[in-house]
Amino acid sequence: MKKIVLGLATILTTSVAFAQPNKVISAQGYLRNGDLAKAKESIDLAAKHPKTENDAKALFYRAKIYMELAKAEGEQFKPYQDGSALIEAANAIQKIKGLDEKSKKKVNMKEVDARYNMVSVGVFQQAVVDFNAANYSNAVKLFQTSVDIKKDFGMIDTLAYYNAGLSAEKGGDIPTAIDYYKKCIDLNYRGSRVFYDVSKLQQES
């Protein structure tokens, strides 16, 4: 009886070990077939498992799936169209870029960078939409994501810094606005205009 129980335990352990890597394969299939809801469900499970949470291929498909969620049509996908799905995609790609070179070989890094650039454009555009809709706190978060992505490309997104400051000011978060404006001053962006903005906010706060 003990041998039978041990045998069953081994089978169960092996099944669990393979279950999550298979979720990545399932997510690929669902994405290919256009079933975003199931693709998201599978890749989210893979993202929580130790064997796949830092796997380059799993992270790449997470980025791809969340990029699709950001532009998907239908009532069920509306919660992902506020830029949050793009931030998830950016986070997944940032994890890939932080892996060692051996781990990165599981994916095409040129395609990863191409998608990262697409996310950068998407978050900036959504930030502008949120700013115009007076959703200032989300605009700040998205402009900051644009800043972070450009940093990974060795670039400085001065416009995103300034827009983040302006969004924070409009939203009443004066300390954050001042921090962003001071960053613009450090980067010599917009010159005397930003000095005026900082001076005005410091006097009012």
Task: Please tell me about this protein's structure.
The protein is mostly helical. The protein has 10 helices and no strands. The longest helix has 31 residues, at 2-32. It is elongated. The model is unreliable at 8-18 (pLDDT under 50).
Which stretches of 5+ consecutive residues score pLDDT under 50? 8-18
**Bulk shape:** elongated
Helical content class: over 70%
In terms of quaternary structure, the protein is: single chain
- The computed structural class is mainly alpha
Largest sheet: none
**SSE string:** HHHHHHHHHH
- Alpha-carbon Rg, integer: 22 Å
Q: What's the β-strand tally?
A: 0
Tell me the layout of helices and strands.
Layout: H1 2-32, H2 36-47, H3 56-71, H4 84-97, H5 101-104, H6 109-132, H7 136-152, H8 158-170, H9 174-186, H10 191-204
Concise account of the structure shown:
By secondary structure, this protein is mainly α. 77% of the residues lie in helices and 0% in strands.
